[in-house]
Amino acid sequence: MIYLIGGPPRVGKSALAHMFLERAGIPGCPTDVLVSMLQNAAPQHGVRHGTHLDKAASAQPFLVEFLRAVADGLDESDPLDGYVVEGDIVTPAAATAAAAHGLRLVSVFLGNTGLTVDDLRIAPDWLDGADEAAYQRMAAWVTEQSRALRDACTAGGHMYVEMRAGYEQGLQRAYSALMEHV
Hints:
This protein is an alpha/beta fold. About 50% of the residues lie in helices and about 15% in strands.
């Protein structure tokens, strides 16, 4: 089983992926690795780091092929054999495209429609050296992206977990929902 975790920055995707490794021994990969490889080795495809809106769309064909390769390496007869893929290029559209290839996967999307500047400061190295205006812009952007993601999940029948109400509780809800599919 492939476990997909998507959402904008700073909503808990990596923390949820670590829960899979720590609790169930299921390894994974952040999509930042895939984006870095494409940015450096094949810049002509336009896949690059950043918060630009075309990032996920330009990366989607490569993500789907990566997921197909992951699926080829899994033992489908073993219900506990799995792999986690997390990142901001994991979108409802990418999950739908991957499922169309017959891949065994389950996805969850995390968002925070109430992210604050103080929430961003919890990991100060992330916006290291940024001024107050940059923190405010990023908090507003993540909030906006979370709303759009929530709406896309509702429209497409994908699982969305709101992290605003409680980070630890949200992570546990997302983990439990994904593990129901084992």
